[in-house]
Design brief:
The complex is a heterodimer of chains A (448) and B (438). Chain A has 448 residues and is of the alpha+beta class. Chain A has helices at 6-18, 70-77, 89-96, 121-133, 139-158, 161-173, 187-190, 195-205, 221-231, 286-298, 304-312, 345-362, 366-383, 387-399, 404-416, 419-429; strands at 29-32, 38-43, 49-56, 100-105, 110-117, 211-217, 256-262, 269-276, 316-324, 331-339, 435-442. Chain A has 16 helices and eleven strands. The relative contact order of chain A is 0.16. Chain B is built from 15 helices and eleven strands. In chain B, a hairpin with a 5-residue loop joins β1 (28-31) and β2. In chain B, 58% of the residues are buried. Chains A and B meet through α1, α3, β4, β5 and α5 of A and α2, α4, β10 and α12 of B.
Chain lengths: 448, 438
C-alpha cells in the first residue's frame, strides 16, 4: 500500500517556486504599554467586528498545593462584578451591545474574550480593565458558582469515561510537574475552595505586567494603541511578576499503563502519550519536527497508521496521532486508535508498536515530508479565515513564553526541516519509558 | 470554560439562519449557462474559496429497514469516484490540501468544501467527481461500514444520544424524525452498494440543489465551475415526501437509568414551523427564556442563582415537517427533580406575564448587534447564505433581518409566550439516576 506520490513530486516543485509570501505575513503588530502589558494587533478588515482578548500568564500549573481548580474557579468569578459594574452587569453590557464573550483556563494561561462590533471596542476594554483590579466577591455570588464548577466537572469529566481516562493518563504521565493536575481540579479540592482562596489567587496573578492584550479585526494599530493606553496603560501594577518556576519531571525510567473499565463504554479504545518538548521549552526545532511527525504517523489517510492499520491490516476503525506543543514547560505526543468490531485491542497495540518501531528505525521518506509540509503550510492559509483563531494562536504563544516572531517564523522553520530532523525527533520522543498507555474497556458496572 | 453556550442538544437540529444585519456584504446571484444558481460573496482578501451546498433530502427519506443509509453515503464520497479508486482519490486529495465534508440531517444533505485559491482548478475537479460519480467499491465500503458499526455501538451507550433519541421517540414516535439518523448496527450491516447508489440518485438532483460560495473567485469563473461540478446531475428524482409530524401531547416523563453522577434532562413540547407568521416574536421570546446568554431566565434561575447546572438552554427547533420547542440541562442526580420543577416554574411565569420591556429591548439589541458576528469569515458567511436559501428567506434577508427583530413588540412576545409555552404538557426524558422526577 505504498502508493508513491508520482504526480505529486512535480506538483511540489511547482509549489515551492510559486509560494509568494508566508501566509502569516499579514501585518501583525506588537508593542508594550508602559506598565508592561503586552499588546498584539492582528488586522482583519473583512467585517466590521473585533475579537478582544486579555490573557493572564497564570493557569492551573501555578496553583498553590491543595487548591487545584482555583485558577479555573477564579475565571468564573471574574464575571461576578466590581463597584462600577455590579453582578450581572458585565455580561449585560456585552450582550446588549451585541457582543458575545466567554473565558477559558489552561495549565499556563487564563483568557477572557469578547467579539463585538468595532465601535464597541472601547466599551469592552473598559470592562476588562476594570475587572483586572476591582473585583468584588461575596459569598452570595461565590457559593452558587462553586456549585456550577462542580456541575461542570461532572458534565465534562465524571460523566464521560474517555475524559476520566485522559485525566488518569495525564496524572501518570507527569510525575512531579504540576501539569499532572486537571485544570478543572480534583473534586475533593474543588468543593473546599473559598472566596478567600479566589481573592488571594487574584491578587497574586492579575496585574497589567502579567497580562497580554490581543485585538484582531477591523481596527488599525494606532486605534488600538490609543485605546489600550487609555484603558489599560493607566493601570498601576500591584506587584512585579517573576518567572514561573515549576518542578521539573525526573528522567523518565518506567513506562506506565492505565487500564480502565467502564460500563458506559461499549467499545474499547487505545491511547498513548509520551512526554515531549514543547515549542516554548525547545531550543532547536524538535517541536516543529514533532508537528510533522504527528502528521506522517497518524495525521490523515496517507499516514502510516491509517495505511497500515486501517487499510492494509483492517484491524482498526480509526488510528491517529497528535502533538500538543503549546504548553510552557512540556509537550505531549499521543496516539489513539479503536479496534474494528471483533478485533483484539492487544493485537492492535502490538501493530501500533510495530509501525512506530519501524519509523524510529528507518525514519521517514522525502515524499512523506513534502506532502506533510505542504499540508501544514496550507493549514496556515486556512487559519487566516478566522480572526478569533488567529487571536488565540498569538495569545497562547505570548502567554507561554513565545514571541510574535516565533509564531511568524514557524512557516520558515517548517520549510527547512529535513528527513533527518524528523527521525531525530522520533528517536528522542518515542521512548516507551517516557510514556503512559491507556486502555478503556467495556465492563459491567463496578461494585460500590 | 465559563459557559457552554448552546451545546449541541440534538444532533438533528437544523442550523436556522437567524442572520444579522451584516455589514456591507454584497451577495451576488450567479446563474450558470446550464441554469445552476449560486449565491456568491466575492472577497479577495485571503486566497481561499469556501463553498457550501445542499440537497433537500436527508435521512428522513431512508428506505424502510435502511436507517442510516443517507448517513452512510456521507462517508463514501471521498472513497473513490470516476476512474480514481479510493487510494488514488485520497492521495490526490491530500496533495491538493482541500477540505471536503458531508453531513446528513433529516431534511437536508449538505456538502462543505474549502480550497486554496491556487489549487482551485484541480480541487474542484475532485469535487465534481465526488458529486457525480462516487464509486462504492467493496474495500472502502466494508471499511467504512466497520467505522459506522463502531459509531452506532458507541451511540447506543452515549447518554446524550440516548436522551435525545428517547425524546424524539416520545414526541414524534412513528414519524421518520424519530428514526435513527445514523442507523443502528442491524441496519448498517445490511447496506449495500446498490442502496448507496440509490441514495445518491435520490439526493443529488439539480432541482433541490442550493449553493453558497465565498472568497477568491469571480462570478464568471464560478459560473463555469458550477456547470462543471453540478451540471451533469439529473434534473429531478422521483418525488418523495414525508408527512407532517404530529407532536405527542404531554405531559410525559421517561427515565432511562444509567449509573452516572449527573442526570441529563431533555424537555420540550410542540413548537412552530419556520414559516409561522409569528416566528420572530416567538423566536425573541425563546431567546429571553432560554437563549445561551447569561441573561436568559432559565440560566438566571437555575445556574446563576442556585448553581444547579453548568448550562441550561431552550429554543425553537423548526424542522421542515415539525415545529419543536426543546431544551436541556445536566444536573447532579439528587437535584434533578428540583431543576426540572424550576424549568416549569420559569416557563409558567413567562407564559403568564411575558418578559419586561427592558428584557425585550436588551434581547433585541443583542440579536441585532451580534448578527454581524456570523459574517466574519468566508466559511461562516457561506454557511449563513446556505441556511437562508434552505429556509427560503430571500437574497435580501441579510439586510431585512434586523428590521424584523426590531419590529417585534412586547404585546406580540407576550402573546407568543401564552401561545407556545405549556409547562403542564412537557415531554421529559432523563438519563441518569435522577431523584425527585416522576
Amino acid at each position: 500500500m505504498n502508493r508513491v506520490l508520482g504526480p505529486a513530486a512535480a506538483f511540489f516543485l511547482f509549489l515551492a517556486t510559486i509560494i509568494p509570501a508566508l501566509a502569516l505575513d499579514i501585518g501583525v503588530s506588537a508593542f508594550t504599554l508602559k506598565n508592561g502589558m503586552e499588546v498584539v494587533v492582528i488586522p482583519d478588515r473583512r467585517a466590521p467586528v473585533v475579537t478582544h482578548m486579555v490573557w493572564y500568564k497564570v493557569g492551573s500549573a501555578d496553583e498553590p498545593q491543595g487548591k487545584s481548580g482555583i485558577a479555573h474557579f477564579l475565571e468564573h468569578l471574574l464575571f461576578k462584578g466590581t463597584a462600577k459594574y455590579p453582578p450581572g452587569e458585565f455580561d449585560r453590557q456585552v450582550s446588549r451591545n451585541g457582543g458575545d464573550g466567554n473565558a477559558f483556563t489552561s495549565t499556563d494561561y487564563t483568557g477572557y474574550f469578547q467579539r463585538i462590533a468595532k465601535e464597541r471596542l472601547a466599551l469592552v476594554m473598559e470592562l476588562e480593565a476594570d475587572r483586572m483590579q476591582n473585583l468584588i466577591l461575596t459569598d452570595e455570588n461565590v457559593l452558587p458558582e462553586l456549585n456550577v464548577v462542580q456541575e461542570e466537572r461532572r458534565e465534562r469529566t465524571d460523566n464521560d469515561p474517555s475524559s476520566l481516562l485522559a485525566e488518569q493518563m495525564n496524572a501518570a504521565l507527569f510525575i512531579a510537574h504540576p501539569y499532572r493536575k486537571p485544570v478543572i481540579g480534583w473534586m475533593s479540592e474543588v468543593v473546599q475552595l473559598t472566596r478567600e482562596d479566589a481573592l488571594s489567587f487574584y491578587r497574586a496573578h492579575y496585574t497589567p505586567a502579567n497580562a497580554i492584550l490581543v485585538v484582531a479585526g477591523d481596527v488599525t494599530v494606532d486605534e488600538v494603541r490609543t485605546l489600550a493606553e487609555t484603558y489599560y496603560g493607566s493601570l498601576e501594577n500591584s506587584f512585579t511578576p517573576t518567572p514561573r518556576k515549576r518542578t521539573a519531571e525526573p528522567t523518565p525510567i518506567a513506562a506506565r499503563r492505565i487500564v480502565m473499565s467502564d460500563p458506559r463504554t461499549p467499545t474499547p479504545v487505545f491511547q498513548r502519550q509520551y512526554l515531549a518538548p514543547s515549542y516554548p521549552s525547545d531550543e532547536g526545532h524538535t517541536a516543529e519536527a514533532l508537528d510533522v511527525l504527528a502528521e506522517i504517523l497518524g495525521g490523515g489517510t496517507q499516514s502510516r497508521f491509517y495505511q497500515d492499520l486501517v487499510i492494509r491490516q483492517k484491524i482498526a476503525a480509526y488510528a491517529g496521532s497528535w502533538y500538543s506543543g503549546d504548553a510552557a514547560d512540556y509537550g505531549n505526543f499521543g496516539f489513539y486508535a479503536a479496534p474494528n468490531p471483533g478485533q483484539d485491542i492487544a493485537r492492535l497495540e502490538t501493530a501500533i508498536d510495530e509501525v512506530v518501531a519501524r519509523l524510529v528505525k528507518e525514519g521517514v521518506t522525502q515524499a512523506e515530508l513534502d506532502l506533510t509540509r505542504n499540508k501544514l503550510l496550507a493549514d496556515t492559509v486556512y487559519a487566516l479565515d478566522s480572526q478569533a483563531a488567529l487571536a488565540r494562536m498569538f495569545g497562547v504563544a505570548l502567554s507561554t513564553g513565545q514571541s510574535v516572531a516565533d509564531v511568524l517564523g514557524w512557516e520558515g522553520k517548517i520549510q527547512k526541516l529535513t528527513v533527518d530532523d524528523i527521525k531525530a525527533a522520533a528517536v528522542r520522543v518515542l521512548d516507551i519509558r517516557a510514556s503512559v498507555t491507556g486502555i478503556l474497556l467495556p465492563a459491567p458496572a463496578p461494585q460500590n | 470554560m465559563r459557559n457552554l453556550f448552546l451545546r449541541p442538544l440534538l444532533f438533528v437540529l437544523l442550523v436556522v439562519a437567524f442572520a444579522r444585519p451584516a455589514a456591507a456584504i454584497d451577495i451576488q446571484k450567479v446563474v450558470s449557462p446550464l441554469g445552476i444558481t449560486a449565491w456568491l460573496v466575492e472577497d479577495r482578501t485571503i486566497p481561499l474559496i469556501a463553498m457550501q451546498f445542499s440537497f433537500r433530502s436527508g435521512g428522513a427519506f431512508d428506505p424502510p429497514g435502511k436507517d442510516g443509509v443517507t448517513h452512510f453515503l456521507t462517508g463514501m464520497l471521498d472513497e473513490g469516484a470516476g476512474t480514481m479508486d479510493s487510494a488514488q482519490f485520497q492521495a490526490r486529495r491530500e496533495e491538493l490540501a482541500f477540505k471536503m465534508g458531508y453531513d446528513a440531517g433529516f431534511d437536508f444533505f449538505e456538502g462543505s468544501f474549502q480550497t486554496l485559491a491556487r489549487n482551485a482548478g484541480p480541487s474542484f475537479e475532485l469535487l465534481k467527481l465526488a458529486v457525480n460519480s462516487p464509486r462504492f467499491d467493496p474495500e472502502p465500503l466494508e471499511r467504512v461500514r466497520q467505522q459506522f458499526l463502531l459509531g452506532a455501538r458507541d451511540d447506543s451507550e452515549n447518554p446524550d444520544r440516548i436522551a435525545s433519541r428517547a425524546w424524539m421517540e416520545a414526541a414524534l414516535g412513528g414519524h421518520p424524525y424519530a428514526r435513527a439518523l445514523n442507523g443502528t448496527e442491524p441496519t448498517i450491516a445490511t447496506v449495500t452498494s446498490a442502496d448507496l447508489a440509490a441514495a445518491h440518485k435520490r439526493i443529488f438532483t439539480r432541482k433541490t440543489l442550493q449553493v453558497a460560495v465565498v472568497g477568491d473567485i469571480d462570478p464568471q469563473t464560478l459560473a463555469s465551475r458550477l456547470d462543471e461540478i453540478f451540471g451533469g446531475l439529473p434534473e429531478t428524482a422521483p418525488e418523495a415526501d414525508i408527512p407532517p409530524a404530529a407532536v405527542a401531547a404531554g405531559p410525559s416523563v421517561k427515565v432511562i437509568a444509567r449509573d452516572m453522577p449527573q442526570s441529563i434532562i431533555v424537555f420540550g413540547h410542540e413548537g412552530i414551523l419556520r414559516d409561522d407568521k409569528d416566528f420572530f416574536p416567538a423566536f425573541v421570546m425563546s431567546q429571553i427564556l432560554g437563549g445561551g446568554e447569561a441573561a436568559s431566565r432559565l440560566t438566571g434561575e437555575i445556574r446563576e442563582k442556585r448553581g444547579l447546572t453548568y448550562g441550561v438552554g431552550a429554543s425553537l427547533v423548526p424542522m421542515a415537517k415539525a415545529g419543536l420547542f426543546l431544551g436541556s440541562l445536566n444536573t447532579r442526580n439528587d437535584k434533578a427533580g428540583e431543576a426540572l420543577e424550576l424549568v416549569k416554574t420559569v416557563m409558567a411565569r413567562m407564559a403568564e406575564e411575558g418578559p419586561s420591556q427592558q428584557e425585550l429591548d436588551e434581547a433585541k439589541t443583542y440579536l441585532t448587534g451580534s448578527y454581524a458576528l456570523r459574517f466574519d469569515s468566508n466559511n461562516k458567511i457561506a454557511g449563513q447564505l446556505l441556511g437562508i436559501q434552505q429556509q427560503g428567506l430571500g437574497i435580501d434577508y441579510v439586510t431585512r433581518r434586523n428590521g424584523l427583530i426590531e419590529a417585534v413588540t412586547l404585546d406580540q412576545v407576550k402573546a407568543q409566550a401564552r401561545r407556545l409555552l405549556h409547562p403542564d404538557r412537557l415531554i421529559v426524558t432523563v438519563v441518569g439516576k435522577p431523584e425527585g422526577v416522576q
